[in-house]
Amino acid sequence: MLIDLYQSYGVAQAPTTPTGDLPRASHVTFWVQHVGSWEARSLSLRELGLSTPVTVVSCRARSFSVNNRPPPKYPGHVPLNFVERGALAVGSAVGALLNPRRADLIAACGEATATPYFIYRLRDAMLSDPTGRQILRERPRITSETLPLPYLRSLPENSVGRTYAAWLDREGVSPDTRDNVQYIDDEECAYVMQRYRECHDFYHAVTGLPTFVEGEIALKAFEFLNTLIPMTGLSMFAAVRLKPAERERFFALWLPWAVRSGLASKELVNVYWEKILEKDVDELRSELGIEKPPDMREIRRMIREQKKREKERLQQSA
């Protein structure tokens, strides 16, 4: 049996002793994958369910390749090697810059660039906070089933839940559109990234920022200073795609707001949104240290009306 196992690893002939016999021992050493590397593990005869004597065979581990991936660590997990992760990070970042509305590319870039340090830092921030630890234990998900919109709309005016539902209705967004995490190897860290992703719309609702590109870049700047996830910082490069007037507003108005609030606010990943749906949103912003930014939609509406009046005045004077 062990000779067959040895040959299944691609070795033509098992090692022998100087007398030509196969070596024997009471333990068998296998190579197993552990946290991205291979380590030797010695199994006793009792653990293997075998009787003595046992033939000792050294099993050579295959290297990580496209045709020989380690098994997934959670449903949907796609293990990547260093080269694949780097290619995914670069490709998705470039694609997202060319088309900032490609949520799938933004998600892939976020996962590819969050390891090895940044997602662990965010996980540790949750572990150091009582509410964060509770979230990691219970692992809630934010969907239209766990947070039904009819219930949210019935909550008191200016409550967190009512504000969230109103923002979803105004922007035409559903909480069910978030992609599942695939490329983060650690299962707990994968949940942390999923939690951040599903809470993103709550950040929108609390700040009032809309979903068009100008609003997304402003929120990503805030998120970068709050979470340090690289993708949120890289998203600010999309400012080059803004119109000149929008870019001027971003650097004059939204970026200073993001710096002030991002540095002053508490870790938003530790907010258990499902538990505070009836809380007053202004009170929550005060507790979290978030300054409410100017209404971006209202500013854009006023600018459009001003341009319209100027155009009409020019037509009348012509």
TrEMBL record:
Belongs to the COQ4 family. Component of a multi-subunit COQ enzyme complex, composed of at least COQ3, COQ4, COQ5, COQ6, COQ7 and COQ9. This is 4-hydroxy-3-methoxy-5-polyprenylbenzoate decarboxylase. Pfam families: Coq4 (PF05019). Its cofactor is Zn(2+). One of its GO terms (cellular component) is extrinsic component of mitochondrial inner membrane. Pathway: Cofactor biosynthesis; ubiquinone biosynthesis. GO terms for molecular function: 4-hydroxy-3-methoxy-5-polyprenylbenzoate decarboxylase activity; zinc ion binding. It is found in: Mitochondrion inner membrane. Lyase that catalyzes the C1-decarboxylation of 4-hydroxy-3-methoxy-5-(all-trans-polyprenyl)benzoic acid into 2-methoxy-6-(all-trans-polyprenyl)phenol during ubiquinone biosynthesis. Keywords: Lyase, Membrane, Metal-binding, Mitochondrion, Mitochondrion inner membrane, Ubiquinone, Ubiquinone biosynthesis, Zinc. It is a peripheral membrane protein. It catalyses: a 4-hydroxy-3-methoxy-5-(all-trans-polyprenyl)benzoate + H(+) = a 2-methoxy-6-(all-trans-polyprenyl)phenol + CO2. Its main location: mitochondrion. InterPro entries: Coq4, Coq4_euk. Zn(2+) binds at H200, D201, H204, E216.
